[in-house]
Amino acid sequence: MGDDHELTRLIAGIYDAALDPARWPYVLASIADYVDGRVAGLLAKDTARKRVTAHWHAGGDPHYMRLYAETYSRLGPIATSPPGEIEQIVSVPDLVPYQEFRRGRFYREWAEPQGWVDVAVAMIDKSGSGSAYLSMSRDEEAGMVDATMRERLALIVPHVRRAVLIGKAIEFKQAEAATFADVLDGLSASVFLVDPNGRIVHANDAGENTLRGGNFLRSVGSRLVASDPQVDHGLRETVAATASGDREIGGRGIAMPVSTRDGDRYVAHVLPLASGGRHYAGAPAATAALFVRKAALERALPPEVIGKTYNLTPAELRVLLGIVDIGGVPEVATAFGVAETTVKTHLGRLFEKTGTGRQADLVKLVAGFSMPLAG
Questions:
Q1: Residue 276 sits in a domain of what CATH number?
Q2: Rounded to whole angstroms, what are the CA distances from 274 to 180, 191, 247, 271, 286?
Q3: pTM beyond cutoff 0.85
Q4: Going by C-beta distance under 8 Å and a sequence separation of 6 or more, which residues neighbour residue 218?
Q5: Contact partners, residue 259, CB within 8 Å, separation at least 6
Q6: How far apart are CA 256 and CA 269, in angstroms?
Q7: Which of 66, 77, 115, 297 is deepest in the core (most CB within 10 A)?
């Protein structure tokens, strides 16, 4: 009963370390006690460089652990032997003839001075770039790795493997979430990820600036609120509907006009996130993304990009940008000091080269080249 209780407590500690990696040294020390080992480690082997790194260890002398990292990790049996099978428990005699091991530098210069006589090793993860191991050394007092140690390690190793894989998944998700947040922060549009009740799960940098301004959107009790009551009502209804995913508001979302107190016009686009194909990392509670941008052309890419895309002459590109920035043919002609017929000639060539037929289509075309990233 005592062993069962100790094993249960140890397994619980192993999974705690998956959530809090700083606990691994304590857990490794507990494993060493349970299997009658001396120095325990979680090791990673780089296949290409044949180098082994001790990510976590317990019981090792700091001086020798430093020597291991600098020199002896390349000389040990883990670095120089085939990896074996996942969860297979092996000792030094399984990897290399024991007398040969005792003649090598690893034993004579590093293991023997510490009193080590054997090491139990189990591979817990394997990829194209390397492998991960649980290692447990034995000294002269404990003796060589025996059947009892192997039996106890066999109870532990599967849980260590699962905990390491869980930890890797958590690290990946955290990195994915951080990358996702960085991408959002790079957008010029204000972006808010909200739950069905309108509570803000995440706002990018532009969104935080919008909230601080409080001109037309603000945060009240962590909930996104529009200053205009009518807009706020529509926003709340739309966001609440996203809890059901695409079925309620459509996979392409809903666009809503928003005006500031100063009369500036914005467009808020609500996109549902609840569908299986759009569950974003780092925002498990978010069911909607709200993109808010001013109802105007954003900063465009360099004009020459548009010109090269459609093989436009400098004069044609100038007229295209004039249509966007100034207005119709008469206004552009006046601004450029040319005849309207000249502008019309270039306009006809623009229609032909871009496959458009109206000036409004040209404006949309240029809008498609606008930069979504913040300046």
A1: 3.30.450.20
A2: 17, 17, 10, 9, 8
A3: no
A4: 211, 225, 227
A5: 216, 228, 265, 266
A6: 6
A7: 77
